[in-house]
Description:
- 39% of the residues lie in helices and 20% in strands.
- The chain has helices at 12-16, 20-29, 44-50, 60-67, 82-90, 103-107, 122-132; strands at residues 3-10, 33-40, 72-80, 116-118.
- It has a four-stranded antiparallel beta sheet.
- The structure holds adenosine-3',5'-cyclic-monophosphate.
- Residues 54, 59, 63, 93, 111-112, 114, 117 line the site of adenosine-3',5'-cyclic-monophosphate.
- Adenosine-3',5'-cyclic-monophosphate (CMP) binds at residues 54, 59, 63, 93, 111-112, 114, 117.
Amino acid sequence: MAVQRTLSIIKPDAVGKNVIGDIIRRFEENGLSVIATRMSHLSAAEAGRFYEVHAERPFYKDLCAFMSSGPILAMVLEGKNAVALNRQLMGATNPKEAEAGTIRADHADSIDANAVHGSDSAENAAIEINFFFANLDLHSRG
Length: 142
Ligand code: CMP
């Protein structure tokens, strides 16, 4: 499987719980490298632009309110099969369905406060990385 890049966001709930280090440790221990990071506090409008694909969904307004409720840590992960591997490490979107030992099983409280976001495809990863980072911000480990 080819080396890929994916966008990960540590959401306001997990930043608030002070578990940034635990989450990044899981990525690194599973072969993913952090090649860019950025801490941001999005406005609701900025969160809305990031999650535009969900604009018609009933949870969109709550999602934007939650994602702008505190600081987040956006990062780019690089490694073999990074998109799927990150999703495996995160666990199911709804923490009630997340497999034991995943980030969401261990740190998420609800489907909204679910600790982390990860791109769902290589195509969306490129779009999402571009939302937060310029090319010069990415420091590939090659
Ligand atoms: P995330 O991976 O960041 O992508 C969209 C987010 O919407 C998702 O995680 C959840 O936090 C949130 N969300 C709230 N309700 C739902 C739902 N019913 N289905 C999918 N995502 C939801």
